Amino acid sequence: MSPGDGQEEERLVATAADREDQAVEAALRPRDLGEFIGQSRVREQLDLVLRAARARGATADHVLLSGAPGLGKTTLSMIIAAEMGAPIRVTSGPAIQHAGDLAAILSSLGEGEVLFLDEIHRMSRPAEEMLYMAMEDFRVDVVVGKGPGATAIPLELPPFTLVGATTRAGLLPPPLRDRFGFTGHMEYYEPAELQRVVHRSAGLLGVEVTAEGAAEIAGRSRGTPRIANRLLRRVRDWAQVRGDGVVTHEAAVSALAVYEVDERGLDRLDRAVLGALLRLFGGGPVGVATLAVAVGEERETVEEVAEPFLVREGLLARTPRGRVATPAAWRHLGLTPPAQAPGAGQDGLFEG
């Protein structure tokens, strides 16, 4: 395995869900909008959409949910189906590589059924074009045969609700985006909201957690409920083996020190990138390829896994000349910047 291969799955602060996460999320998943924590604006707007549809006795409009992994897009899709009293069919963009794959799914839907299409931006173009007609007219044209003798047979579909989820809304073509009746963008969670997530999850898992312990876990969860739940489970393990079974502030600090997740949620990879940028390159600017070599990782790992969080935290900036550390990065690692180190007010620090 080359450096960086599988890195996203191995990190405790990874936003992708592994098998354990999927099993736990299924058990912890709220059943209705009232139980769902956070995303107050999306919840209110979605509640209006669903209530109005129920009052009309109609199928709910198609819904597009965008945002980073781990913020609750799948959970909301399940809630939409539950609120509408409809079954849900789950698939993903990468699984639909041919128009025939999509036609088979659509033709088997029942009236009012919810189709959840995760990573919708990764669907193939032919399937995407078929979806346009299905969403708008509840009809698809199935092509039978090949060449000059091919025939398009129209297939009527019962009304259904498509819930699309994407982490990269900008990759969706405008004709597809425009066919969604409601679009909700999921924001990162505030620490107070994550504390509520931790308390709720602890109760469902049968774990005793103090307010201070929940706050410590929430502060290191990178604004993401999935990470908060994962950290809670690891702190629970530490408390059961080395403590008295209670998730306290001291247990959280000690456990997350073992797992190398610091007080801001940075892990080994994040600190390695920042450390190389500061110690080896004086805070930059330096190219991402050079930075990747310095930490022994693939360029894609640094650029797609570590860098987004560091930029969001204000610890690193992208500039036309390369990556640059901010004054906050020097402070976080407890280092003194050289006199000529790039500063937050330096010309060209941030890209337009």
H-E order? HHHEHEHEHEEEHEHEHHEHHHHEEH
Cα shape: globular
Overall pLDDT level? 86
- Give me the number of helical elements: 15
CATH topology of the largest domain: Rossmann fold
Report the uncertain regions.
1-9, 344-352
As a percent range, the share of helical residues equals: 40-55%
- Give the radius of gyration: 23 Å
Compute the separation of the termini in Å. 37 Å
Question: How many structural units, i.e. domains?
Answer: 3
Strands of the largest sheet, in order across it?
Answer: 2-3-6-1-7
Architecture per CATH nomenclature, i.e. the level-2 architecture of the largest domain: 3-Layer(aba) Sandwich
What can be said about the biggest beta sheet? 5 strands, parallel
Helix/strand structural class: alpha/beta
Please give a quick description of this structure.
By secondary structure, the protein is of the alpha/beta class.
Summary keywords:
352 residues, Arc Repressor Mutant, subunit A, 15 helices, disordered C terminus, Helicase, Ruva Protein, domain 3, disordered N terminus, 46% helix, single chain, alpha/beta, cytoplasm, globular
Description:
Keywords: ATP-binding, Cytoplasm, DNA damage, DNA recombination, DNA repair, DNA-binding, Helicase, Hydrolase, Nucleotide-binding. GO terms for molecular function: DNA helicase activity; hydrolase activity. This is Holliday junction branch migration complex subunit RuvB. Its EC number is 3.6.4.-. The chain has 352 residues and is of the alpha/beta class. The chain folds into three domains: 39-185, Rossmann fold; 204-258, Helicase, Ruva Protein, domain 3 (Orthogonal Bundle); 268-332, Arc Repressor Mutant, subunit A (Orthogonal Bundle), CATH 1.10.10.10. Helices cover 46% and strands 14% of the residues. The chain has 15 helices and eleven strands. Strands 2-3-6-1-7 form a five-stranded parallel beta sheet, covered by helices on one side. A two-stranded antiparallel ribbon has the order 4-5. Strands 8-9 form a two-stranded parallel ribbon. β2 (88-92), α5 (99-107) and β3 (114-118) form a beta-alpha-beta unit. α8 packs across α9 and α12 packs across α14. The protein starts with 6 loop residues before the first helix and ends in a 20-residue tail after the last helix.
